[in-house]
Amino acid sequence: MGAESRLKQLGIELSAAPAPMANYVRAVQVGNLLFLSGHGPMKDGKLAHIGKLGRDMSVEEGRQSARAVGLGLLASAREALGSLDRVKRVVKVLGMVNSADGFVQQPQVINGFSDLIVEVFGEAGRHARSAVGMAELPMGISVEIEMIVEVADGAGAARPKAAAKKPARSARPAARRPAARKRRR
Length: 185
Description:
alpha+beta; CATH 3.30.1330.40; two-stranded antiparallel ribbon
């Protein structure tokens, strides 16, 4: 079952991809890798889940925030690729958590994102990941996540060009310049 079918089965409808908040693009594809910019939690097109984990929000609220970020990343990946069925594998994730002093449960917070991705992509959703605490995040958001995915087919991607044929070597050896060698000695 593909990712698009799983979304339907799970009853998940993705909103439109969130607009960039500054001078950057949401996604860049290089070869068969799609790099997705950091996304924050959105609800109804507006920032949501503002605050620091360990002070303003519980771990469970942080997990929900990370899940909301995941929905935005899925929407951006779909927009960039045309379909989430083109995602061959989720490769790497960086999860940043707006953390109060002493808060050390960043991995549990980012699990809200990782659990969603595995629900949608199955084994192909299991990814390498970093979950780190930050002193601040833009606009006070609780979580920011960026993701790299492998794209299954080359449609729309730069495909490797066939190797160019090398010109046939001349049967005649290259001319040598003994005089030049003598001067260097």
